[in-house]
Amino acid sequence: MSTPRVGVIGGGQLARMMQPAAINLGIHLRVLSATATDSAAQVIPDTVVGSHEDWEALKAFALECDVITFDHEHVPTEFLEELQNLGVAVRPGPHALRFAQDKIEMRTALTAAGIPCPKWKEITTESELVEFGDTAGWPLIIKTARGGYDGKGVWVVGSLAEALQIIGEIHAAGNRVLAEELVPFTRELAAQVARSPHGQCVAYPVVKSTQTDGICHEVIAPCPDLDPERAAQAQAMAITIANSLDVHGMLAVELFDTGTEILVNELAMRPHNSGHWSMDGAVTSQFENHLRAVLDWPLGSPAPTGPHTVMVNLLGKDLGDLHSAFRHIMARDPGIKVHLYGKEVRPGRKIGHVNATGGNIEDLLQRAWHAADYLTGVIDE
Amino acid sequence: MSTPRVGVIGGGQLARMMQPAAINLGIHLRVLSATATDSAAQVIPDTVVGSHEDWEALKAFALECDVITFDHEHVPTEFLEELQNLGVAVRPGPHALRFAQDKIEMRTALTAAGIPCPKWKEITTESELVEFGDTAGWPLIIKTARGGYDGKGVWVVGSLAEALQIIGEIHAAGNRVLAEELVPFTRELAAQVARSPHGQCVAYPVVKSTQTDGICHEVIAPCPDLDPERAAQAQAMAITIANSLDVHGMLAVELFDTGTEILVNELAMRPHNSGHWSMDGAVTSQFENHLRAVLDWPLGSPAPTGPHTVMVNLLGKDLGDLHSAFRHIMARDPGIKVHLYGKEVRPGRKIGHVNATGGNIEDLLQRAWHAADYLTGVIDE
After folding, report:
1. Between chains, do A334 and B4 touch, taking CB under 8 Å as contact?
2. Looking at residue B50, what is its pLDDT?
3. Is B192 exposed, middle or buried (0-12, 13-18, 19+ CB in 10 A)?
């Protein structure tokens, strides 16, 4: 029996959460991790300490894997192309990953594929910005094309002067700039699909995602009060994107729901925070399906196991002994599922999440938020 | 945040399957494994290679853990008592574990606690055997008091001569002998509970367990067509045993159902094959609850997540490429959950299991058996 070897670039919590699925499936997981104590390095025996920006380290790591995939989207595309030239299976491939790495490339490709997006434009001059502001209205959104995540690299700007200052700084740092309309959305949705190299695609239920300061904080799966046709439309959109961009692995499509239409906000080509509910609420978690997809194995059912699952992130605050709080919330609620990432607590940092599955959304929200607030020290009873 | 450190003695699949639960809960798992390539050693970074029969190795390992627990029941009781004298938390403790290690001690304790057992007697002389045969009838069961598992150390004997020969061999090997009546059971059940040092107990649904050559092969959870009162009686029996023997961690009580009564067959004080269904079919798996129990944390809900889960073991046969067969059954059934133990295939060896959850038991049985038979090469279509 030949055990498949999947290499993950990056030792964060997404790589960590692939390990339970890998253990069950008999997959040998290895990780290229910045330190020996990163979240994933703690739980994966075959950890190689090295940087994804170090070509020699990356190459040596990748050549020992049947396929490589990612905890994050920061590996330089040219390195990935070079790995492919050496015969390494890179999934998602650089041809797809560049659309997750660069928001201008993403908007260009989606627009060409007929996918509805907010009004957008690359900004290189003041006059382009003035013209875009006249069309899209103020305030508007300024984004760096590359390098943003979790609300970083995104600014809501109310005036030309404010916008020009930020744009000047981005340009000075050698990055390109994207302006987008400020979409008057009523809620944010996420549509996740897994897609394999042989073209199989499965779509998870569309979820409602709530952000705090640009960081995903709460997810309800499936999204309540979502018209089935609208949900199917969002799933079809995610499948179209996965096919158009030839994504291998999990694709998360973050969406704005304006009440009358659905627009694409962001893409992520890896397991995503909006899918953590699937660890306890779906037949096949996003982590298992990511591994199955990058190995080109048949995909597992994305069907929910219960009527609804609510996920709430644990965002680091002033915490004492996390495991003492842990015992309290476990005693209070035997059905709550706590996931910790083994990370040191820093304010605002994602250190874990909780899931609750059941039939009554209000009850699930109350339970999940109580657990999260207690674990992060927001409340003490 | 102080990460709890749980040490597991033994590197088999039970230790391996604790690791996904440990990862989710942020528990640091370490394992004392006979080799660096044992099932659990493949997936637990903090693996110490050593023998549980080597006192110095065991002591050094245990002193670095907050609590130690077990993949198997073969650690000498005197070593465990010595560890307790050194201040190590041993769960289950040697005071409980001896009832799982020695069937005469187990029968003595259960009989004293008023728990219904098959007729039984320790046999030291021929006349005792003759007398027992007159009471219990022939054929009867001969068991070694210690060291048996998966059908090993158990004989059905039809005649006095046959029995005496086996008994002579067991005595010659320095072991004690137990005779039991051959119970005319209609089916076998298993009742599992988790119990913590502070005395909390949760009971899993009673399951139906089917053996092949003394090895658990199929489990249906919950047991179909089981009178709710009878099920509650079996759960109460398991809780009584856990309390009477002061078990910490998971306890599996294997039961004979004769149609008119329920009798205890065997005990196991660890996660058990009859509970593997819980990995995909319960809110809290037996592996998570075992860890929570030995850490004296509040226990998780043992409630099923679906109407029924069927588990079928993968028993090694003449296999070619397991992962190629794997792809076939994944493509055929996106809802089947496959668990592999990373073990080399040997005839009759447990190398994994499959779970299927849903509403129709016949459908689940058909699906789980097809997957198992295909994966083990019994069928090829």
Report:
1. no
2. 98
3. buried
Question: Which has the closest alpha carbon to A92: A193, A207, A219, A237?
Answer: A193
Measuring CA to CA, which residue among A354, A351, A332 is closest to residue A342?
A: A351
Going from the C-alpha of A141 to that of each of A5, A182, B106, the distances in angstroms are 42, 6, 71
Give every CB contact of residue B283 below 8 A, 6+ residues apart in sequence. Answer: A334, A335, A337, A357, B300, B301, B302, B303, B304, B305
The pLDDT tens digits for B313-323 are 998 876 556 77
Q: What are the structural domains, with CATH classification, of chain A?
A: 5-90 (3.40.50.20), 119-181 (3.30.1490.20), 187-375 (3.30.470.20)
Candidates A23, A202, A350, partner chain B, best to mutate (most B CBs within 10 A): A23
The residue length of chain B stands at 381
Report how far residue A293's alpha carbon sits from residue A295's, in angstroms, rounded to the nearest whole number. Answer: 5
- The structure's pTM equals 0.96
Q: What is the DSSP string of B177-209?
A: EEEEE----SEEEEEEEEE-TT--EEEPPPEEE
Residues of chain A contacting residue B323, judged by C-beta atoms under 8 Å apart: 1-4, 26
Write down the pLDDT at residue A149.
65
**A20/B24 Cβ within 8 A:** yes
So what's the pLDDT on residue A319? 59
Cβ proximity of A221 and A277 under 8 Å: yes
CA distance A338 to chain B (A): 6
Please list, residue by residue across B295-334, b when 16 or more beta carbons sit within 10 angstroms of its beta carbon and e when fewer do.
Answer: bbbbbbbbebbbebbbbbbbbbbebeebbebbeebbeebb
Cβ neighbours of A345 in B, within 8 Å: 1
Are the CB atoms for B121 and B128 separated by under 8 Å? yes
C-alpha A63, offset from chain centre: 26
Secondary structure (DSSP) of A342-365: -----TT-EEEEEEEEES-HHHHH
Contacts across the A-B interface (CB distance below 8 Å)? 132
Beta-carbon contacts of residue B21 (< 8 Å; ≥ 6 apart): B27, B285, B287, B288, B291
Query: How far, CA to CA in Å, does A364 sit from each of A309, A359, A367, B199, B248?
Result: 7, 8, 5, 28, 31
Burial of B351 (0-12, 13-18, 19+ CB in 10 A): buried
3-state secondary structure at position A2: coil
- Rounded Cα distance, B288 and B276, in Å: 12
- Residues A287, A289, A292, A294, CA torsion sign: negative
pLDDT in tens, A168-183: 999 999 999 999 999 9
Residue from A188, A187, A195, A189 nearest A302 by CA: A195
Whole-number Å distance between alpha carbons of A13 and B213:
43
**Angstroms from B160 CA to nearest CA on chain A:** 46
Assigned token pair, B109: 């304790």
Q: Are B355 and B310 in contact (CB under 8 A)?
A: yes
The conformation of residue B344, written as its DSSP 8-state character, comes to -
* Residue A334, H or E segment: none
Chain A residue at shortest CA distance from B4: A323
Backbone angles phi, psi at A158, to 5 degrees: -100, -15
Among A301, A334, A352, whose Cβ lies nearest the Cβ of B301?
A: A334
Does the beta-carbon distance from B2 to A26 stay under 8 Å? no
Quick check: B323 and A357 CB within 8 A?
Answer: no
Q: Are the C-beta atoms of residues B69 and B8 closer than 8 Å to each other?
A: yes
DSSP A67-118: EEEESSS-S-HHHHHHHHHTT--BSS-HHHHHHHHBHHHHHHHHHHTT----
A104 Cβ neighbours under 8 A, 6+ residues apart: A122, A145, A176, A178
Q: What is the ipTM of this complex?
A: 0.94
Burial of A117 per CB tally in 10 Å (0-12, 13-18, 19+): middle
